[in-house]
Amino acid sequence: MGRLSLKLLVLLCLLLHLNPSCPYSLKSCTIAYTEDVLAGVVLDCTNRKLVTIPDDIPREANSVNLGCNRINRINRNDFGNLSKVRILFLYENNISHVDDGSFLHMVSLTRLYMSMNKLTNLTANLFQGLSELTLLDLSSNNIQLIHPLAFQFLSSLQTVKLDTNKLQQITDIQPILQLPHLHNLSISTNRFPSFETKDLLLNTSTSLKVLDVSYNVFERFSITTQIFPHLEMIDLSRCGQSAGFKWDITDKTLLKSITRLHFSHTLISFKDIQKVLQSLDSLMYLKLNYMDSWIHKGLLATVCKIPTLKRLDLCFNHVANLSAKLVTCSQLTELNLSCTDLTELSNGSILPMKQLRYLTVDTNLLTKVPDDIKSLSSLEILNLDDNLISELGCDDFLNTTRLTELYLNTNHISKLDSCVFEHLNHLKVLSISGNLLWTFGGAFKTGLHNLNILDVSKNFVASLDQGDFQGLGSLKYLDAVSNNIGRVKKGAFDGLKELKTLCVSLPLEFENNFRGLQQVENITMYFNSDVRFKGPQPNYHEALFCLKSLKTFTIICRGYHHGFPFDIPKEIVQSMNHLEEFTADNVYISVPDPDTFKFNPNLKTLTLRRTDLSALGPELFQPIPNLQTLDLSNTKLMSLDFLAQADLFALRRLTLTHNEITVINETIFQSLPALRYLDLNKNPFTCDCSNAGFIQWVKSDNQTQVVNGHEYTCSFPAAEQGNKLLDFDIQFCWIDVSFFCFILSTSIVLLTLLTAFILHFLRWHLVYTFYIFLSFLYDKKRRKRGTPHDYDAFISYNIHDEAWVYREMLPVLEGEQGWRLCLHHRDFQPGKPIIENITDAIYSCRKTICVISRRYLQSEWCSREIQMASFRLFDEQKDVLVLLFLEDIPAHQLSPYYRMRKLVKKRTYLSWLQAGQHKGVFWQNVWRALETGDDPADDTDLLTGPAGC
Q1: Are strands 30-32 and 41-44 parallel, antiparallel or unpaired?
Q2: Which residues form the TIR domain (predicted)?
């Protein structure tokens, strides 16, 4: 009960973070998974070949990326339900038209990116509703016209990017400059012939701080009005025409706030650029890229005279003896000399820069550390990446004792001496990856007492020896990944008492050398396929027993292998009581021992890739009820049945890509109530009714996002190969074939029984009904023709009563009274079916006289006659039936003869027995009955005379 309660509690806590109203079965987008429930719903719809805005974007979306598609227009209702979206990406589409008011309901939008489209103009109501927007990117469109009221609704806008458009007049940006909170404006690469503030009819000053007008063919750049009092930065890169442009700012006070200025391949005369630099009294950062010719003419002499200048960027200038021209720039604190083809930094060139804190000389041709650096005691960050330095001397960093970051990546350094870094006691970051180091030479045994991050990856060090990092007592991050490490000896990581993260390659020989890493929390180990543990079996796994604080453990085997000789003993993982993340990539050759995670209740993320888990069972997961992320990609899985009993009630993210799953039972996901993210890409699905439940689940479930579910394709059967899994029609699958067969067979059996019953017991009723129908047609036809009756009465009697009919009835009715009577033995047409003769006789006579006796009731044909006569009676509502009883038959004896009993109860009848000695009266009543008209209204009784007469 205690374990069940714990599961229910975990489940409840997780469900509180789920949003059941969010539909996750999306056709064209993917919801980015994040552990941070406060991050909101982030939607990725990039590169989906979309031509319209998807109609299934969740209402709860906070960020929507529709970039890199083929959308050509935005309709008014496309974003009608997205009131919570804060960031919207529409870059790199074909959008040429946006309906006015399309963003009306996006009241929370703060950033809108619409670069690289085909917009030509901005209408007055285009941005209606975007009162919270702070950034608008419309660069790389074809915008030529901006309506004066286009920005009227953007009261919070701070950054506007209109780069690479077709604006031609500076007045086009006037509506933008009127924005109350505008800080950044970029209008580079347009068609402005000049930039003159006198053309801007502004009544008040702007709040603009950054202005980018680069890549414009200006003839003139003029600021003559006080509209930019807060302007701090101007980018004039690649501005001007072949003859240059005119700088017209005569009043220095108009640029009193300028602190940053960018010139990069700017077409301006030497005289004008000097004029510009001399007019800026507050400049702190100057960027001079691709300005070789003016630097060669001595521009740096002017630059270095700017007393406020602190940061100078001289990248991409190819000038010989560049460093010699910097002598007078003693006030600099930051200097960037990247990509300047420097072969050396001449002595004394930067020595006067006593305040220099940040020096970047990467991507050059230096063969050694410049001598001047040795004396820069103020230097804090030094970047010498991507040079040709082959050796470091003991005095290279002798006086740079304030260095906190040193980057020496991608050089030709082949060795280190123990004295190289011994004076860098304040160094916190050292990166020396991608060199030719064969040994560390004791460089990390002394000094570097405050080093936090060390990267020595991608070198040629063959062995990590004992004490190599002995002096790095403050180190927290170490990257020693290299394909060339041939041995890691015992005690190689001694001294790393504060280490938190270790990335290391462990090929060939591996000894018990993690004993000193008491604080390490994250380890990533790369093994070559021929990895071996040195030491007697079975104690090789003790090398990792000391990692008691480990939270993240990643093991990656590079290349092809037949499995580790030690198969990662379960004891290694079991000893890591605080483990939260475990990754084994290309390591196991079969399913790990079921007890592997028996003592890891805190495990939240488990990744097992590139192995054979086809025999995986639920036992492996049962000890880790708090697991939230599971990745079993490329593991030859063919079924997910193991999940049904794995007790993964807290699992939120499940990745099963590149497997062999063909059929999925949707009931499996009932055992994963917290699942929010499911990735099943690259599986050979079967498109038939066996997957109908899963397809329906993907379409209807509103909790779990099936990543790219609408892109899953069918591999089986051959007829469906290449089709989309979710396009498979599952409607006919809901018919239970066995149930259908049961209903069909049952119906056939019942129909057979019913047919046999009718043929045996009711065949005459059917015949009778058929002829009743014929008689109905016969009568309608007869009446339509107005054919007169052939007889006055049809006599219906039993053959046993024939003597009475001939002896008593005929002499009176035919002989004395003169009625024309029809008798079957005398007047029926020979050869004609009996039932047809009966029908003709009844309908060709005005009346029918039924001579009733017990034998009459028992006669089948007599029964047909009286039934047909009664049908005529009730069908025509005429007095056509005369009942004449030869015997006294009580009512209860008439019960089996339902039709006769019903007639007797409703009609007056004649009784021969009751006539007695008054036969004349009896026959007189018969005459009166035959004489009565057809209309029942002629008399109150259909038969005249008292009952029983």
Answers
A1: antiparallel
A2: 789-930
Residue 241 lies in a domain: no
Are 539 and 566 in contact, with CB atoms under 8 Å apart?
no
CB-side neighbour CA atoms (13 Å) of 79: 33
Helix spans in 230-347 (H): 270-278, 292-296, 299-303
133 near 156, Cβ under 8 Å? yes
For the residues 345-365, what does the mean pLDDT come to?
93
What is residue 736's predicted lDDT score, i.e. its pLDDT?
Answer: 64
Q: Two tokens at 384?
A: 């010498």
Cα–Cα distance for residue pair 67/91, rounded to 1 Å: 5
Is it the case that residue 161 has pLDDT exceeding 90? Answer: yes
Name 845's bridge partners.
791
Locate tokens 């047809």: which residue?
836
- Paired residues of 677 in beta bridges: 653, 705
201 band by pLDDT with thresholds 50, 70 and 90:
confident
Per-residue pLDDT, 110: 97
Q: Rounded distance, CA 84 to CA 234, Å?
A: 35
- Residue 933's pLDDT is 65
CA 517 to chain centre: 42
Partner residues linked to 152 by β-bridges: none
| Domain contains 165 | no
Per DSSP, which regions of 226-317 are E strands? Answer: 233-235, 246-248, 260-264, 285-289, 311-313
- Which H helix or E strand runs over 357? none
637 contacts 615 by C-beta, under 8 angstroms: no
CATH number at residue 806: 3.40.50.10140
Peptide bond preceding 717 in cis form (omega within 30 of 0): yes
Q: How many distinct structural domains can be found in the chain?
A: 1
69 burial level (CB within 10 Å; 0-12, 13-18, 19+): buried
Secondary structure of 531-579 as H, E, C letters? CCCCCCCCHHHHHHCCCCCCCEEEEEECCCCCCCCCCCCHHHHHCCCCC
Structural domain range at position 824:
788-938
pLDDT band at 935 (very low <50, low <70, confident <90, very high): low
The pLDDT assigned to 840 comes to 78
Please say if the pLDDT value at position 168 is more than 50: yes
Written as one string, the DSSP assignment of 451-470 is --EEE--SS---EE-TTTTT
E strand spans, 104-252: 111-113, 121-122, 135-137, 145-146, 159-161, 184-186, 194-196, 210-212, 220-222, 233-235, 246-248
β-bridge partners, 313: 287, 336
User: For 315, what's the count of Cα atoms within 13 Å in the CB-facing half-sphere?
Assistant: 14
In angstroms, the first-to-last Cα distance of the chain is: 93
Cβ within 8 Å of residue 740, ≥6 positions away: none
List of residues 6+ apart from 28 with CB closer than 8 A: 45, 48, 50, 54, 56, 710
Alpha carbons 754 and 114: distance in angstroms, whole number = 75
**Amino acid 508: pLDDT:** 47
Judge whether 93 lies within some domain: no
Is residue 923 in a domain? yes
List, for residues 77-103, the tens digit of each pLDDT value. Answer: 999 999 999 999 999 999 999 999 999
Average pLDDT, the chain: 85
Instruction: For residue 849, name the pLDDT band (cuts at 50, 70, 90).
Output: confident
pLDDT tens by residue, 116-132: 999 999 999 999 999 99
What number of helices (H) and strands (E) belong to the chain? 19, 46
User: CA–CA separation, 55 vs 245, rounded Å?
Assistant: 51
Task: State the Cα–Cα distance between residues 129 and 153, nearest whole angstrom.
Answer: 7
Asked if the bond preceding 618 is cis, omega within 30° of 0, the reply is no
Phi and psi, residue 708, nearest 5°: 55, 30
Q: For residue 928, what are the CA distances in angstroms to 78, 936, 944? A: 91, 14, 6
